[in-house]
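Task card 7
Instruction: Convert sequence to structure tokens.
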Amino acid sequence: TTDGTPRFIIELQDYIKYSGDISLISELYPVVKNSIEGALKYWTDDKGYLLHEDNETWMDARDENKNSYSPRGTRANDIQDLWYRQLLAGAYFADNMKDNESSRKWKKIAEKVKKHFAEDFTDAKHSFIADRLDKNEKPEFSVRPNQLFALDLIEDSKMKTNTLKTVWTELVYPWGVATLDKANPNFHPFHLSPDYHKDAAYHNGTIWPWLNGIAMQRMIEAEQIEKAYHLFKNMNEMALTKGVVGGLSENLDAFLHKGQTWPKLTGTYLQAWSNAEQLRIWYQYFLGIRPDMTVSELTLAPRIPSEIKNLEYHFFIGNQMVK
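Output:
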């Protein structure tokens, strides 16, 4: 998948910031550099966008003829955000390694991507961000949650607000974030149905709890803490009472079947990134713990919901406990 490499580089940066393990920078910097220079050599266009085929994002389901159920080629919005952040993470490592030439180069390309993105992925007719550009550079405006990632690439505050409102209104259910809005003709709310193949619904209507993380993050950034916390609480309740105790599933149906009070859990019943995103949002955004141990800095920016009246917590940063 196209997103695997940038996610690795971005999370490597996070790990180093939280752990202070700067020895890993020199050890893995050749890998970081190769990941960026390889993409620049083989997989970018003249605007700096990272290219990919229809099924090479996380929405990767294909039919028996290998046609994508959710075509997202050749420049998906979330891929461009991940690429942008990979470039900046690479520059962070380059600065640490005193590789000034690479740092300047990668920062310049990141700004190029950001500049073109606002021009190509938004227009006056839509109040949200296009999901992708096709091979002919034509934007496609399906309402999908991927645009939440791409808010990093948008400076227009009105567009950012409208995009968040669109996603939260059209895609967020009490049990999580759907992969496609219900007005789309390809929308399939039930993952397992006799009416269509399960992969036709996989990224075209089913709920993916891992997406709750970026949805809650964007709401907290917009100071909509209570709305984010309502979804957070629902996920905690699900983890404790549904499926695998203490864990979150891969998918849920978007709609309830008759007689249900909670949708059916499907897919993998204990999914790593569903659980990881729930924990990340609590740690990084509700508690607001954001260190950079490479420069001995700790930022605390808590956004505590009104329901929580008293809260004490302690955490490790590097090998030190903070209370």
